[in-house]
Amino acid sequence: MKRVMTYTAVVLATLAVLQILWQFRLALLLFGLSLSVAAVIRPFADWLVARGLAPVAAQVLLYVLGIGGILLIVLLLGDLLLVELNNAANVAVVEYESLHQRWEAGSALQETIIHYFPPALTFAPAEDSELITMLPAVVDLTRTLVGALGGAILLLALSVYWSIDQHRFERLWLSLLPAKRRSYARDAWREIETAVGSYLRSQIVQSVLAAGFLIVGALVAGVDYPLLFGFLGALAVFVPFFGGLVTTVIAFVLGSMTSSWIGIGMAVYTLVIFLFLEQGLELRIWKREQRSLLLMVLVIIALLIEFGIAGFILAPLAAIIIEVLIKQTYQAYVVRRQTAVHYEDLEARYQLLAQKIAHSENGEVKPELRNLTEKLATLLANTREVHPM
Hints:
Radius of gyration: 31 Å
Number of strands: 0
Strand content: under 5%
Shape: elongated
Largest sheet: none
Distance between the termini: 26 Å
């Protein structure tokens, strides 16, 4: 009965903790993203510190360069990208409306298929009542944008704190664990940080290269919307499995607007670029010695069902963390088993030594030997307490 009550209490406590974590999921997501940003820049900061730069100065320099580079790209290409996005949206609306009208007057199969698609958009002058109705949506959009900007600022601030005060942060949360578990937790934490940082650096490099190659290819082929195409390709790098395929389809559609041969050429070019990035460059940047495809698929399915496209994109990070935890747990188990065998061997030798001392010929033992024997007995007893078998 007591065991049943214990198991019930553990299950209820676990469910309560999960419920609390779910309520604070946005804060935890922000916390995790800030740690990820810190993990991305840590090798560069260590490289600068090894060359004589102060740790705080190295962190500040890297963040200034990163944020400045992003702002420079937005200032140089932001207006052109918005113009292309607006033109592409207008063309897409017009083409969809034309297709919708043709299929509505087409064959029975086309009428049946188009019935399941959204109706074509119609544009009419907006009245005052419609503007009043649209006002809450505009307010919600503004609030969302302001919240996203505030979250980005907080993310950067937290990331700077984790980067500068890493060791104190580690000591703080490791102090909450039992002493005999701290070394394993610290090793797992650092390996997770290394793996996540390596993965994100790999994806960022691939994203930049994909955008550059796709923009150049679109300009050479004379395809419309080259900046928009490159931007979509850069985002597609972060979509596991299907990012390259979706970008290839988009390349074929854009190229086919000029000619079918250009569409085929753009599709082949895009597919080759993504294969080169994923199968060639990624293996050099991200040392993924062990990567379970089955685990990745299971995590993607679980997060996709629960969080949608955001979970689909974050699934590789979750799979990396789970793999590291499984690996560390198994290594700790193996080390404990090997250590247990060594303890047993040491205890057997100690018992043999004690017997020899007890049955010595003259019955006298040197004080040094007796002192060493007592210390050995104390060490074995302490080891038993720290590593129970």
